[in-house]
Amino acid sequence: MYPKKILTLISFLKKLPGVGFKTAERFAFELIKWNKEELKSLANILYNIKETLKKCTTCGCLKEEDHCYFCDIKLRNNDIICIISSEKDAFSIEEIGAYKGLFHVVSLISPIEGFQKDDNNVDNLKKRIINNNIKEVIIALDSTLEGDATSLFLKNKLKNLNIKISRLAFGLPIGSSLEYIDKTTLAKAFFGRQNF
Ligand SMILES: [Zn+2]
Predict the structure, then answer these.
(1) Mean pLDDT across the chain, nearest whole number?
(2) Which has fewest Cβ within 10 Å: 41, 90, 153, 186?
(3) What is the 150 CA–ligand 1 centroid distance (Å)?
(4) What is the pTM of this model?
């Protein structure tokens, strides 16, 4: 039987995506081999991460201190918004180098649980579109049931705003989450976006 501290460490590590008991076990035993300084640095990052890394209240992306790179009007095209469901997707889309517009993070709606009250940041999105004179909205949500349901929901909510709405579709395999798509496929999906 492992010491309690090891078991606790394993149970934390197991919470990470794709990490089962065996992998968590391996990670835990690897970590205890690290020297004290390394462990202290890791612990410090984790301890402070919520204070130093914040969600931008405008777009929902991650920002360091008070500056949101994704909302910086000097760096971005201000009349186009790309809708994503994870802060991480902004970095993936940024990486393909073809998009310099704004972002907006929404949470996905489960078609099985039905539509919850409007808590997925859509009212804020509408305000942004109107106040900033946005011309196009690109829906870059997963090609899954949740992604489809949320896209339809957004389309309905935004249909009276007289803007172009497109969705990444071309090249995206059904059932795929943006997170697991390689750069080339994502770039293709972006360029081949279709009116929605
Ligand atoms: Zn922002």
Answers:
(1) 87
(2) 41
(3) 21
(4) 0.80
Question: Could you tell me which of 122, 116, 23 has the C-alpha nearest to residue 81?
Answer: 122
**CATH number of the domain to which 28 belongs:** 1.10.8.420
pLDDT at residue 177 is higher than 80: no
Q: How far is the CA of 137 from the centre of ligand 1 (A)?
A: 16
pLDDT at residue 105 above 70? yes
Collect residues with CB below 5 Å from ion ligand 1.
56, 58-59, 68, 70-71
* Alpha-helical segments (H) within the chain: 4-13, 21-31, 36-52, 87-96, 122-131, 145-158, 183-191
Share of the chain above pLDDT 90, in %: 49
Q: Ligand 1: distance of its center to the CA of 171 in Å?
A: 28
In this structure, the answer to whether residues 60 and 11 fall within a common structural domain is no
* Distance of alpha carbon 42 from alpha carbon 110, whole angstroms: 35
Domain that holds residue 104: 55-195
Indicate whether 76 and 171 sit together in one domain: yes
